[in-house]
Predict the structure.
Amino acid sequence: MTSLPAQSASGETDDPVVPDADSDAGERQRRPTLRSDLRASVPDGVIALVVTAAVFALLYYRIRAKTSSTVSVMPFMADTREFWTYILSQAFGWSALLWAWITVVLGLLLSGPRPSWLRLSGRRVERLHRTTSLNTIALIAAHALLFAAQLIRSDSARWYSALATAFVETFVPGGYDSGTGKLAIPLGQAALYLAIPLGLLFYIRHRIGPKTWRVLHRFVIAVYILSVWHTLLYGTNVWYDGWFRTAVWLLQLPIAALLLLRLMQPARRSETLRGPRAHTGSRIGWVLRLGGRLAVVGVIVALIGVMVSGNDGGRTVPPADTSSSHNHD
């Protein structure tokens, strides 16, 4: 559900250049560190909290008014005094998905052709990319912790038993065995457990090597896909067909378009897709590069199909018994 700092258009990160070749201490001092980026992420984090508060207020109001799909899926959620932590978890989940979307877009803008309308410098975009990445991890963690808090509050067992059950159901793959959560929860867990190391590896990339880091970095898009998949499967706000669920699908169109542009016009000449005879690497590598480009084109066609048809994979009729799909007792 997140992305770690991406490469610049030159293929490396935009670390400040130190004129003196022998000034290793000065280079280390200027190199972006986790501590400096955590400080720089505070303004962005404040904005994320404000957005989360606004989303929470909207969700809370819609549930109280019984106009939210959440109440249709889980009628007991109308008791907002009992389930406010779950609503807050939803709010953090939505802001986390938004921040992940921003982070991925910034990463693709950095690693692909720079659009002329983008007035920010590459260094500024990269720093913003890093801070939104860190805040995305924090938002995902808050989303998971609040989900666990609701499980604890709704459990009538002793506190230590409730705590253990909530931990297993929230953080252990396969621990949540109810309804769509059997698949959706592990998807969210996978996104969280991949996002943390992939996001923090940037700060030790000089130890593991730039090439290794770049290879690992490319798996970040999988984290984002897992996050969107988790949302579409388990987000009760987008449980049924409608404009909101379709909008979530359509927000993936800019990312797919930027990814295709990044693949068609890569920053490194070695990544350019040439003809099979002109390709200098292995035939398998050429097939994989061609397959990746064709797969992204297929995704774009599918997203356009969703927009035109309105068939977004949502449920059309509320199930007769919703307790089995979202049971928090």
Notes: The first helix runs from residue 24 to 30. The CA atoms of residues 2 and 100 lie 5 Å apart.
